[in-house]
# Entry
Amino acid sequence: MELFTIRGGKPLSGIIPISGSKNAALPIIAATVLNSGITRLYNVPMIQDVLNLCEILRLWGSRITVDQSAHAVTIDNSKLVIQINETIFGLVRKLRGSILLVGSILAKFGSLTIPLPGGDIIGARPLDVHFDGFQSLGAEINQTGETVTLSVPKGLTGSSMVLKEPSVTATENLIMAAAGAKGETTIKLAAIEPHVQDLCHFLEKFGVGFDGIGTHWITILGKDFSSWSQDIEYTIIPDSDEAMNLSALVAATRSEVDLRGIRPEYCEAGINKLQEIGVNVSLVETSMIFRKPTSGYRAAKYQCGLYPKLMSDQIPPFAVLATQANGVSMIQEWMYEGRLGYVTELSKMGANAMILDPHRAIIVGPTSLRGAELKSLDIRAGMTMIVAGLVAEGETTILDAQIIDRGFEAIDNRLRAIGADIIRSSK
# Structure
């Protein structure tokens, strides 16, 4: 188990470059399965989830080169052969993003057997939206215990479907499957998050036709990928979720920090919320510039929603900011009923916080936080604990720091570069 030990209350200053998008990198790496040639990806975040997905492909015969310093990944799938063994099962069970391999593998090879994937335990996240869509495209699905077999004996055929909900991973999975289907596929109530759009733009490089990118009604014109091979290069978008998480960190610690390399159009809701609270932040080209606040922060309502609203992965660290604001703040997490556990952890530090029900919590501030031993319940909760530790007086120990590594690249090194007292150790 990895631990972070933080001594809080120290001023932070400097520059933090924003990483490439985790939630774009995973589906784009999965989509490279469609290409028997060489795909070169840039601005790839060097996080554990990305490395695990690359390792699954490597075990299937892909030749993968990872240049961590350049944030580049080269994938040669010319020798890719889909086979299942216990090693691959173990990796799939650890990585929920591995479900994204299903759409591209069905489009390329026609069948796949996988265990149900793992990932963060933040609530019920059923796969029925994925499976309903695959069946609409002609897939046959058989589940035995924790294993699922999908096949398309007659090939994938384009169809029109309405998703039960605008699931991001289901939308991405079905886009990849539709990319290899015969004819035209229309997905209604599709997710429109920036990383979904980035996947579509990547697949345009493969010759897939699209209409309606960035809308809830998207049409895909598929093509035959059975023997398709071409050398492709693509640069992944910056991570707007990381930008918002780090924005909450900088604001909560009242620091003077520049976040560099954002896409402003993907961060509008977050910037608006920061300004509503009273955070001294300005936007200069692709940088968010934070300066010390001129007055106290105001309480606010943090309600996650569909893009372009603040999204579920962006909100948790704002709970720490709420402990430093004047008044009663509410967090409303409608998507996952198990995500608010970080509020209980903040209470260990003296936060005046209460979970009202599985989807709502209130936080009353301002409150001084004190160091404590905390758990990383999931990637975003772990980042929230880091923010709390930096705000708190005294020493904070964060357990299971390796969970945070799944979503944030070398976060301890990056924070030390701006003055944070954070040490990694193993237990």
User: Anything to note?
Assistant: The domain at 22-235 is CATH 3.65.10.10 (UDP-n-acetylglucosamine1-carboxyvinyl-transferase; Chain).
